[in-house]
Automatic annotation (TrEMBL):
PROSITE patterns: ACYL_COA_DH_1
Keyword Ribosomal protein set for record: no
Entry similarity comment: Belongs to the acyl-CoA dehydrogenase family.
The protein's required cofactors: FAD
Acyl-CoA dehydrogenase/oxidase C-terminal domain mapped to chain residues: 280-378
Matching InterPro entries: Acyl-CoA_DH_CS (IPR006089), Acyl-CoA_Oxase/DH_mid-dom (IPR006091), Acyl-CoA_Oxase/DH_mid-dom_sf (IPR046373), AcylCo_DH-like_C (IPR036250), AcylCo_DH/oxidase_C (IPR009075), AcylCoA_DH/ox_N (IPR013786), AcylCoA_DH/ox_N_sf (IPR037069), AcylCoA_DH/oxidase_NM_dom_sf (IPR009100)
Keywords attached to this entry: FAD, Flavoprotein, Oxidoreductase
Protein name according to UniProt: Acyl-CoA dehydrogenase FadE29
Any one cellular-component term (Gene Ontology): plasma membrane
Record carries keyword Oxidoreductase: yes
Superkingdom as given in the UniProt entry: Bacteria
EC numbers on record: 1.3.99.-
Organism: Mycolicibacterium vanbaalenii
Amino acid sequence: MTPCDLNAQDAELAELRASVRCFLTDDREQHGWVPAVDAWLAGWDEEFSQRLGAAGFTGVTIPQQYGGRGLSHLHRYVVTEELLAAGAPVAAHWIADRQVAPALITYGTEDQRARLLPRIAAGSFYSAIGMSEHGAGSDLAAVKTKATRTDGGWLLSGTKVWTSGAHHAHQVVVLARTEPADPKRRHAGFSQFLVSCDRPGVLIEPIILMSGAHHFNEVTFDQVFVADADVLGDIGNGWHQVTAELSFERSGPERILSTAPLLLAVVRALQNGGVSDDRTLSDVGDLLAHLISLRQLSFSVARTLNDGRDASNRAALVKDLGTQFEAESVRVAAQLLEGQCTPPDIDTMLRTAWLHKPMFTLRGGTNEVLRGLVARGMGLR
């Protein structure tokens, strides 16, 4: 069977799904991690990532010659769904596996692939993405970080914000201008660089959430030398590369399942408590119907990416609709729990969900900007 023959209910994918569930059940019993909301951002656990890698569940799409399994994006989709539904602590390897590995496979040099892909497949390499800036959040064409040619490489200067996990990461993949801005060609003149976090001139400062949690960072590059060997792809091709990369970031199950552990726990608690009034059943049914529809759309994007076709418009749509659902699901969960005696683990997840709720529609590009992208892609603007 070829990857193109697979669908969401295929027996091959079902077998993979069952093996991931077995791993998660055993690993949780042995190591005691607690399911969490938004674990793909907040659940940084390097030992878990390495155990996951040893079990063959990171680097699923990485070719076997680089230590991966050489499977399709649909296989990775199934693994991702199970990890998110379980609320597993996946943040450490998440960005490297989701975005950096596909970029290296498509645009990287053989040296870059041989150096980084085996570590990503092993769950032992952690990367951040340096895109957003002050004044250039969702509008990446306004990026001002620049790289200037020098002997043997480039000098990188500028500041990135909302850089998830940079304080733990080995590297940041930085989008920078390598040509002066041209108002008539706003998307031209960008390139990508693989920048080690321990390079001289790299300063990483925390951005602390209201809860006191530290997931985001401001990263400043002060004349940081980046060798030619650490240019990702072709100079000047950065916009095309980032657009392809964002399709992976925006379309995955994490755009609809960040609150899944909470929702599953709430439904179980209502079931165990014998709550089955019409309003409750209606609310749960609405959540489920909405989730099923979004999953169909998200999976169709995974199939498109698997076929090597452009999915940027539909990926933006998944991100918009999916994160709206995530935000709304927090309100519905709280409403369903009104008057109920809930276990401490559900209370903890609900508090976290309320705190993270404003971020759902912002990260990965604000929904308002993405709607403009979708409209242009449909020929409406």
